[in-house]
Amino acid sequence: MRNFYEMIREQEADRLALVEEGKEYTYGELVKLSQEKGDRLRQEKSEKKVIFLREKRILDQLVSFLGCQAAGKIPLLVPEDAKQLPEIGEVPEKACMAVMTSGSTGVPKVLYRRYESWADFFPVQNEIFGVTPESRMFAQGSLAFTGNLNLYMAQFSIGAAIVAADVFDPRRWAEWIEEYKTDVVYLIPRKLLFLPQCIKKPVATVRHILAGSQSMGSEEAEKLRRCFPNAGIVLYYGASELNYITYLRQDQMTQEKNCVGKPFPGVQVSVEDGEIFVTTPYHVEGVLCPFSLKDLGHMDVAGNLYFDGRKDDIVSIRGRKVSLLKIEGALEDIPFIGEAIAAVVEKEGEKRVAAWVTLCGSEVSEECEKQIYAHLKQTIANYELPFCCKIVEKLPHTESGKKDRKVLDKV
To answer: How is residue 336 annotated by DSSP?
Structure first.
């Protein structure tokens, strides 16, 4: 059965494949390391089909993933800090890999993929993302998250290279982007927007900027263009269960940050009663299409999809439906607020909405909260106003960049 290890074996052995924290590895070296990992797994003679892989370094994650496939095992990369591992049930016959996702429930679950469910789409996504065999893509973050792992494999499918960072250090990222003359940058928007603070002069080599997981508006895109004047920006909306769904180019971005663009070729999107349904041949095993991720949205007359949040973002407060995403958007539209999270809390025995915000370019003062509420009253209804708004230094995020409401009690 064809898999990603076999895919990279087909590339020229002396081509650059990976630069991790400044150290270079060719395709031949990756294959050798993966073969050695596969040999060790075969010697263990384990009956297990699925192998949990908990590695810290990107190189180790990559070699373990490929080594499992070399040994005929199914790799499952898990976040280093994962506290709960899922149960392994029946494994689909054609699966070559697995991913772990918690979705909105917080309970880990395993999703299985055939090789073709990613590989058949690589030519489409590489063309839209501007990836060529000569590309060098900068990326940061664990391969336990499918967006990162997918883009690595798509690069390797055509013999391109990855410049990878293990740690969060935007100043070093900026140095490596220049040093290795990267032409593609892939980061979630929250991380991307640290780069303008670190880059002192425009970088001409970058031609394409990719981002997913979060939305971005035209104002943020313009900040990036000042650093990377030759770059086009593409945002995508996707999911572990379905792969890529829609994409949006910079010239289509507006102040409405929830616009996620039009469907990728071969993907169909519809909205029924405010719920997004997707039909795609590039889904995980066991999915029946049209499939819903329980995401809410709407489409405009031009066929653009707008992400309006998850069903879980709509809560009932004193008998009225309230959108947490709408409240967060209203807060983040305030010029001196950086990020915002709204969540339901218990207050005197009843459910209420509270908010946490970070400030940008402003000092905390007694007037801040008054100004916040003055702005909010102009954009949302009184019953949507949070009963309190706490100003904090930073907000919690998952490794994939999504706001993490589950740990707000630690903020």
So the answer is: T
DSSP 195: H
CA 4 – CA 73 distance, rounded (Å): 12
Buried b or exposed e, range 324-341, using 16+ CB within 10 angstroms: bbbbbbbbebbeebbbbb
Which residue type occupies 105?
A: T
Please tell me what DSSP assigns to residue 397: B
Structure tokens at 172: 């070093």
CA distance 30 to 14: 10
Token digits for 308?
């309006």
The 8-class DSSP code of residue 138 comes to: E
CA distance 56 to 166: 8
Beta strand 208-211 pairing with 184-186? parallel
d(CA 91, CA 258): 36
Task: Give SS3 for 152.
Answer: helix
Strand order in the sheet with 74-77: 50-53, 74-77, 97-101, 109-113
Alpha-carbon span 100 to 145, nearest angstrom = 8
Q: Which runs of consecutive H residues, i.e. helices, occur in 132-231?
A: 146-157, 170-179, 189-192, 195-198, 218-227
180-232 pLDDT, tens digit per residue, is 999 999 998 888 888 988 888 899 999 999 998 556 777 788 888 899 999 99
Cα Rg, the chain, nearest whole Å: 22
Question: How many Å apart are CA 150 and CA 118, to the nearest integer?
Answer: 7
Distance CA 276, CA 269 (A): 7
Task: Please check whether residue 271 is in contact with residue 300, taking contact to mean a CB–CB distance below 8 angstroms.
Answer: no
pTM of the model: 0.83
Residues 69 and 62: beta-carbon distance below 8 Å: no
